[in-house]
Structure formats: structure tokens, C-alpha cells
Specification:
The chain is of the alpha+beta class. It has one domain: Aminopeptidase (3-Layer(aba) Sandwich). Helices cover 29% and strands 34% of the residues. It contains four helices and seven strands. It has a seven-stranded mixed β-sheet. The termini are far apart.
Length: 149
């Protein structure tokens, strides 16, 4: 399968919203999900530091949001991450994470964080294989960290 990774544009908002709902339904199929509030995605789509990375072939099939934080130390936080079901286990998630990590390096950020639910063993393994380590136990989830070189 051939796909390309790119940053999202305002014209991608509808598809990102669809993938977000798909992700929420995967996590909790018994619940009715509202999705993002109006205007939430603007900060990712207007040319600021925050980005959404997309994987597409003919259509957008996956995305990953990356938030730049400037606190005591700068870091990149990987938040919403969704790969449509039929495209899972094909390397798309790894490619999206690699794109976000490359961006962190370009802007001089060396720490990348994300959360993983403790019950999602496959996600924890996935992140561990990509160099993420448990940084802090936060009850029902772990904060995981990767230090970039």
C-alpha cells in the first residue's frame, strides 16, 4: 500500500472529525460521542506551531495531533491518534509518529510525551517499540516519554 504523510489543511477538518469519532467508538462503543467542539481544530489548521499529521492514499485514513508546549522545558505532546480500522498494522501509525518526531527535532524540542491507557496493552507495546517509556503512572493511564537525540 502506498500512502503519503502530510500536514493537515482546513479542507481536511471534516475527515479529521470523522476519524476522531471512529477512534472514540473504538475506545467505548457503548457511548454516543459528540466529537470535537466547534473551533477546537483551528489551532492545528491555521499555521501555528501545533500540527495534525495525516496519512492518505486516495483518502485520509489516519491522523495524529501534535501540540507544542512551552513550559519549564519545551516538549511535544502527541494527543489524538486514529488509524481507520482497515489500515491498521501497515506502518501508518509509525510513519505518523516519525513525522511528528521529525518536526520536534526541526524546532529544537527533545522530549515527546503521550498518554496510553493502562488497559491498552497493544498500544503500550507499540509505543515501547518506538522508544517511549513510562514516565509517570497517572491512575488509569501512563504518561510515556521519548527523548529525541
Amino acid at each position: 500500500m502506498i500512502y503519503r504523510i502530510r500536514t493537515a489543511a482546513p479542507s481536511d477538518e471534516k475527515r479529521i472529525r470523522e476519524l476522531f469519532i471512529e477512534m472514540l467508538r473504538t475506545i467505548d462503543p457503548s457511548k454516543d460521542h459528540d466529537g470535537y467542539p466547534e473551533g477546537y481544530l483551528d489551532r492545528f489548521l491555521t499555521g501555528g506551531e501545533d500540527r495534525i499529521y495525516l496519512a492518505e492514499d486516495d483518502n485520509v485514513e489516519a491522523y495524529l495531533s501534535a501540540e507544542v508546549h512551552h513550559e519549564k522545558e519545551d516538549y511535544l505532546y502527541l494527543d489524538d491518534f486514529s488509524v481507520t480500522e482497515k489500515y491498521r498494522s501497515r506502518g501508518i501509525g509509525s510513519a505518523l509518529i516519525a513525522a511528528a518526531e521529525a518536526y520536534a527535532g526541526e524546532i529544537g524540542i527533545h522530549d515527546v510525551f503521550l498518554h496510553a491507557d493502562k488497559t491498552n496493552i497493544s498500544a503500550i507495546r507499540f509505543y515501547d517499540k518506538r522508544g517511549y517509556r513510562i514516565y509517570r503512572d497517572e491512575g488509569h493511564r501512563y504518561l510515556m516519554r521519548k527523548e529525541l537525540e
